[in-house]
Amino acid sequence: MYYDPIKRSLGNVFNRSPWLRRLFYHLLDLLLLRTWHVHRELRAWARGRTRQPADILDAGAGYGQYTYWLSSLSALWRILAVDVKAEQVADSNNFFRAIGRPQVQFAVQDLVLYQEPNAFELALAVDVMEHILEDVEVFRNVHASLHDGGMLLISTPSDQGGSDVHADSETSFIEEHVRDGYNIHEIQQKLRTAGFERIEARYSYGEAGQVSWRLSMKYPILLLGRSRWFFMVLPFYYAVVFPWCLLLNWYDARTVHDSGTGLIVKAWK
What we know:
With 269 residues, the protein is of the alpha/beta class. The chain has one domain (4-268): Vaccinia Virus protein VP39 (Rossmann fold, 3-Layer(aba) Sandwich), CATH 3.40.50. 47% of the residues lie in helices and 19% in strands. The protein contains nine helices and seven strands. It has helices spanning 4-14, 18-31, 33-46, 65-73, 86-98, 135-145, 184-193, 207-226, 230-253; strands spanning 54-59, 77-83, 104-108, 120-126, 146-157, 198-204, 262-268. The protein has a seven-stranded mixed beta sheet, with helices on both faces. Helix 3 packs across helix 9 (230-253) and helix 8 (207-226) packs antiparallel against helix 9 (230-253). The longest helix is centred in the C-terminal third of the chain and has 24 residues, at 230-253.
């Protein structure tokens, strides 16, 4: 099924006021398991840096929830968030101006083409690389755009059932995905080809995380894809499953996984 129309509908609801958008970000932070893993890595990177200027690239920013979270950590950090969707970029610029965060700027850019040599200390690509066929070109551009010692943080599905694909005969749950998931060694090799030398990769979305993903994301998306009337039922659905998802997310984010349907990858220039 196509996910973008549902995302657009959610955006239309929560863009009605800044406080609704803030609420939306907080709900995403709690519900999306990848956010728990990404925040954990970003906290480690931010330790000792919050009182120093830094330039950060949010590559494929989407709704902008990671940019919002990072800009909450330090007003000294300049964040450039790029995405290919012009309407989403315009909405995000309006929101960040409305809440008084001039250090944040959104821009329309294609990651296959965008490069800003030696400009950033940190780049993140969350829920992005599974949408881009020319992934090595993107990795090369990000590598060129980082300072020496700069870090790229990636969250993406793995080939161990990512995108809810468990056999060769199955296709991705999200039709906008151009690949079902990365092999953990494949993505590291592609990053080396792009110029990165030090790379760390680990699995996310173990058994507990997969249950949480189905409850918090897959089933609601399927129902919303069938009928927008499910928006009316959604608050009652989450009132039941939300506490269980929080517990499962907390456990998954604190567990080392031998396998999992997600990958968290860090690469340094």
